[in-house]
Amino acid sequence: MVWLIYLFSSGSKSFHNATRTLRHYISKICTIGLGNLVPLLLLVLIMSDIVSGDSIRNKLIAITGLSMIFGGIMKKIIIILRADNLRGIEMDVQIFNKHNSSFDGISS
């Protein structure tokens, strides 16, 4: 629910463009469906008496945890890689000159 509020919270054009990929239906299915709704439904199943047998219940608990982890990973992947807001890393590095034991540009 909080994820949906975040996605539709701002009406600005720059926010809308930055979150376009996050609002795509496949992104919603992966993050909201598999990461939030499936675990919630499985927990309701586990808590109710519909599921009998410890082995089935344990498997459902494992599937619930894995789907929560998968949903969280998908949110991070979509935010970092798919939002198209990646920038290159720039470093201001001075190179050590072996010949005169000084940094380039600085005389000894």
Describe this structure as you would to a colleague.
With 108 residues, the chain is mainly α. The protein has one domain (14-103). 59% of the residues lie in helices and 4% in strands. Strands 1-2 form a two-stranded antiparallel ribbon. The longest helix is centred in the middle third of the chain and has 29 residues, at 54-82. It is elongated and about 65 Å long. The N and C termini lie far apart (63 Å).
Class derived from helix and strand content: mainly alpha
**Count of individual helical segments:** 4
- How are the strands ordered across the major sheet? 1-2
> What would the principal axes of the Cα set say about the shape?
elongated
What's the rounded overall pLDDT mean?
76
- Major sheet attributes: 2 strands, antiparallel
Q: Return residue spans where pLDDT drops below 50 for at least 5 consecutive residues.
A: none
How large is the share of residues in beta strands? under 5%
* Number of discrete domains: 1
Helix content percent band: 55-70%
Attribute tags:
mainly alpha, two-stranded antiparallel sheet, 4 helices, 2 strands
Compact summary:
The protein is mainly alpha-helical. The protein is built from four helices and two strands, in the order ααααββ.
Describe the secondary-structure layout.
Blueprint: H1 2-7, H2 13-18, H3 25-47, H4 54-82, E1 96-97, E2 102-103
Antiparallel strand pairs: 1-2
Helix pairs in contact: 3-4
